[in-house]
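Q: I have 339 residues here and want to know how they pack in 3D. Can you give me a structure?
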Amino acid sequence: MKKPAIESSDDRPVKTRWVPHGITWFILRRVLLGIATLFIISLIVFGATQALPGDAARAILGREATPQKLAAVRKQLNLNRPVTDQYREWLGGIVTGDFGRSLANQLPVSSFLGNRIVNSGFLVLLSAVISIPLSLLIGSLGALWRDRPFDTVTSIINLALAALPEFVIGVGLILLFATSVFQFLPAVSLISPDTPVWEELEFIVLPALTLILAVTPYISRIMRGSMIEVLESDYVEMARLKGLRERLVISRHALPNGIIPAIQVTALQLAYLAGGVVVIEFVFTFPGIGQALVDAVAKRDLPIIQSLSMLIAGVYVVLNLLADVATILISPRLRTSLR
């Protein structure tokens, strides 16, 4: 027996409240969490830059600093206003896309950093495009050929590279390919920040290779461990007992489940590339955000420091969000749990 339809007393249709889909609500929560995280980071960044030793006005004027000129520069840069007012104005500018002006050269921060961000982005993208597939391939083959010569050699190399800081790897590559041994690549990137780096590809080889060697060991080791665990699982054994070809067992059952932990590590390593590129760019004098950040700290150029810190933090938040979404989309079990 069907239940009678419920009608409103005034014969108007009953409005139903919209309920977001599981994955939509998941993404919305992650976005809100990311915004809250960026807000907390903005407080930390602003407070840390305010606590830097020295006087920004005196650093700008140098030897020409007089009490009158110092007062004029502090007024021009709003340094004489309360810290809370400075923070509100700075945060409002960040939200609206106005990052202020550089204290050192009086140029808008966006125009000063524009080409440098593009150069660093190209370096990180090139490194990621090579390192991620390479590390996944090495990890998967190491699991399939467990304890064989390939697995033994790659495990030793990965462990050795993972134990070395990235600047040590960079210096070693300079000694090997630019100075002492072969000398067929430039040791430093002597190009202008206004010149796109893809027009001078020889200057990007060593920085990109350094980042690749710094990132690949971590992802490949996680991928190897995850694949070994999946290959020893019951459902993979059941697929083999059903008579499926080994290629289908690997592609349909092992890889989709084994790659899930590697996705999270990949996101962390890409975020590391965004922050770790600062050290690499300083080693090779690469014209990107790393060199700009080092110069800004030396000159106490607060708008540059604050903008780059928030940019790197934003990359971290976005990459973690993308990794969470990719994990949900790849894993059937997690998709089902959100319905």
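Q: Anything worth noting?
A: Confidence is low (pLDDT under 50) at residues 1-9, 14-20. The domain at 117-299 is CATH 1.10.3720.10 (MetI-like fold).
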